[in-house]
Structures are given as structure tokens and as C-alpha cells.
Amino acid sequence: MGNVTKLSMLGLFLLTGSLQLVSAKGLTRAQTNYMLQCQGCHKASGSGMPPQTPDFHEHGNAFMHSEAGRRYWISVPGAANSPLTDGELADVLNYIANDIVKVDNHTAFTAEEVRAHRGEKMTNVYEVRQNLVDSLAATQAPLSSTVREKHESPGG
Ligand code: HEC
Question: Gene3D superfamilies in the record, alphabetically (predicted)?
Fold first, then answer.
């Protein structure tokens, strides 16, 4: 084995070692981006400060199972106008869906999906959100547990 090969293998070893250090701390790039770009308003737990800053858990599961809901998450100002690239924003939204909300069978956002909808301007976010919640409720999609309980309770 030549010295050059030995050196490059050493480099690879050091690189892998430092990547492992990063993951040992448990911080993925998406998590770091969430902390830097979103957490100030949405909090580490994703509970936000309702009603101004919605709790991701409230309708996250239902939104993620609807095309319109996914577009809404991509194009809300805080997400769409962030300095993140399309791929980074996709990863942060997946982090919110998988690790914060724990969406059932989440279909991962891709850079392509983010790119396709990020430019859609939203003028009245609360109205868009309410219309979305109403239409999802009308189609019996599982909304928050409170809504589900109402549907399932015998007299309700
Ligand atoms: C300056 C505060 C602020 C920051 C920073 C921020 N957001 Fe938001 N976010 C809000 C507010 C306020 C709303 C409610 C809608 C609105 O007024 O835009 C919201 C709504 C949302 C929603 C819709 C949630 C729902 O259930 O209706 C998503 C998704 C979201 N933000 C993602 C993000 C992401 C991702 C980032 C970071 C890249 C981010 N936000 C950064 C304040 C913020």
C-alpha cells in the first residue's frame, strides 16, 4: 500500500470519526436548522404559542395526509421565506412531522415538492388554515383527537 493511499485512508477514518461525533450528540442538520430558524417561535416541543403560533401537534397528522395540507406547510411564510434551501426545508419539515408530531406513515417531503409550492404566496394564513381544517373535517379525515372523540362518542 502506497503512502498516498494510507494517507487518504487516514483522512477517511478521521472524517468518519468526526461525523460519528456529530451524531453522538444527536443533532442532525435538520434539527440544527430547526433550532436556528424555527424554534424561536415554534419552541423545541413544537407547541408554539397558540393561537398566534399554532401547535404543530393540533392538526399536523391530518395536514400531512392531505395534498392541500402539505402545500400549506411548505408555503406558510415562516417556512417559505426562511433562508433554507429547498432540500434543507424539506428535511426540517420532515423533522417536524417525524420527530415532533410523530405523524403516522409520514410521506417524506422532497426538495422537488418544496420547490413546486414554496413560491405560492399566502395572504391570509389563518383563513387558509381554517378553510383547510373545515374541509378536512368535512371529509372525515382524522383531525385532532378532540374532533375524533366527538365523531366517535355515541351521542355526538
Ligand atoms: C417569527 C416567528 C416564526 C418563525 C421564525 C417561524 N414561524 Fe412558522 N409560524 C409562525 C406563525 C405566527 C404561524 C401562524 C401562521 C402565520 O401567521 O404565518 C406559523 C405557522 C407555521 C406552520 C403551520 C402550522 C399549522 O399547524 O398551522 C408551519 C408548518 C410552520 N410555521 C413552519 C415553520 C418552519 C419550518 C420554520 C423555520 C424554517 C418556521 N415556521 C419559522 C411563526 C414563525
Answer: Cytochrome c-like domain (1.10.760.10)
CA of 73 to the centre of ligand 1 (A): 8
Nearest CA-CA partner of 99 in 27, 20, 25, 18: 27
Q: What is the pTM of this model?
A: 0.80
Ligand 1 pocket test, pick from 32, 35, 42 with the greatest ligand atom count within 8 Å of Cβ, gives 42
Assess if residue 13 is contained within a domain: no
**Which grid coordinates belong to 140?**
372525515
Q: What percent of the chain has pLDDT over 90?
A: 68
Q: Is residue 25 part of a domain?
A: no
How many domains, the chain?
Answer: 1
Nearest to 58 by CA among 87, 7, 96, 92: 96
